């Protein structure tokens, strides 16, 4: 914690959980898609479902899905901006038993039909918890810089990635591997101490059997 | 660098014969591995956004996303601006010109926040009007140098860090005392320091502001950060100035700030869930509060 956690962040109102956290959730999905979506379909549960219009949570989530930050004034005009860009969007209130009160399930569709689904919650103070990526459980908070590495589930990928990180002097503070089924696709979630360098993403992507690598910055 | 108590900050500042703000600035710059000037510049970016949000929030046409609020800051500002037939200003407000405008500025930022405006969470979005309301007032009307205000913001932030650690800054866990209460306590300390008060006076100002909002519930109508949040920013700013003036006059809080913060934690824990940002108790559960919610979001809840 430092002084700018208390006086700050600069954000678009009215609520750190219903707007700032919502923008961040959308941004996670946008980062994983790695391009601007053509379609954004969002399921809203709990408090998000009940109050999303009054809080502007719809605009905030959509803004994040277009890559905006929580401090950008354009968040307010996200629906209009999406219309202008020809991005289709839908918001559907749903009931997800047992889900955190501020939960959203975001599905993005890219230009060539590529799809990404992210399920996450805005847990207060602009903090988020991402629970699932493409149906695979992940659970990371975005409080630390986090790498997400999608890869083919085969021998040696974890060793290659973490070995590479070791040589970069990066200390891993949290680590999780998720996979749908054996020999399918798997997802590595790696939280690191301090500031994670972006440059190593390109090198990670070149490692055998890695499909994609992205970096989610801490709040 | 984290702080365990307000007392520790006061003692360290006194030992080094400096203000709490300068002490914290030095600590933080070292921790972030930047120069003190850079750290002040970072804080200045916050102050600039605060100033912008005051100006934007005073727009008479401002309306929130829900349509429930907006335009009241302008209403108060215009009321403080009365002039007689010769164009001479008449100060016919109860609070007096300066305080009326401090309150109007606090309302402005809180209304701008509800309208999806860009604000600084200080310490939260819901309580974002209190600090700019008071500090922009000091800058614009009391001729307090900008650097002095910036340093005082480090005092406010350090006090906020203690409250975050020992109690809470979130309405969902501590009620409104954690949001508007903390903002007023932090701001009172900053005002006391910016106007030349000692570290003890900053401590006292914080204690007295917190005491006046102890137990304040978080009961937003329809779950939105509007009713009563916006007007609690107005009162929070008035409480911060009142507490700062009492401290600067040499009045001492009989209960020290750290013990008030402990009482705040205990009071917050004792609040039922209905009064902790769930929008189900207090003003949210009044007949009018329920009607507003149903008009916005329908009856099925």
Question: How are the elements arranged and paired?
Answer:
The complex is a heterodimer of chains A (219) and B (301).
Chain A lengths: L2 H4 L3 E3 L3 H18 L5 E8 H9 L1 H9 L12 H8 L2 E6 L8 E8 L5 E10 L2 E7 L2 E5 L5 E7 L4 H11 L4 E8 L5 E8 L7 H7 L3 E7 L3
Helix pairs in contact in A: 2-4
Chain B lengths: L5 H10 L4 H13 L3 H22 L14 H9 L16 H18 L3 E3 L9 H12 L4 H21 L4 H4 L1 H19 L4 H13 L17 H20 L8 H14 L16 H11 L4
Helix pairs in contact in B: 1-2, 2-3, 2-7, 3-5, 3-6, 3-7, 4-5, 5-6, 5-11, 6-9, 6-11, 7-9, 9-10, 9-11, 10-11, 10-12
Summarize the structure.
Chain A is of the alpha+beta class and 219 residues long. Chain A is built from seven helices and eleven strands. In chain A, a hairpin with a 5-residue loop joins strand 4 and strand 5.
Overview of this structure, please?
The complex is a heterodimer of chains A (219) and B (301). Chain A has helices at residues 3-6, 16-33, 47-55, 57-65, 78-85, 157-167, 200-206; strands spanning 10-12, 39-46, 88-93, 102-109, 115-124, 127-133, 136-140, 146-152, 172-179, 185-192, 210-216. With 219 residues, chain A is of the alpha+beta class. In chain A, strands 3-2-4-5-6-7 form a 6-stranded mixed beta sheet. Chain A has a 4-stranded antiparallel beta sheet with strand order 9-10-8-11, sandwiched between helices. Chain A is globular. The mean pLDDT of chain A is 91. Chain B has 301 residues and is an all-alpha fold. Chain B has one domain. Chain B is built from 13 helices and 1 strand, in the order H-H-H-H-H-E-H-H-H-H-H-H-H-H. Chain B has helices at residues 6-15, 20-32, 36-57, 72-80, 97-114, 130-141, 146-166, 171-174, 176-194, 199-211, 229-248, 257-270, 287-297, and one strand at residues 118-120. Chain B is globular and about 60 Å long. The mean pLDDT of chain B is 95. The chains are: A alpha+beta (219), B mainly alpha (301). Strand 1 (10-12) of chain A pairs antiparallel with strand 1 of chain B, so a sheet runs across the interface.
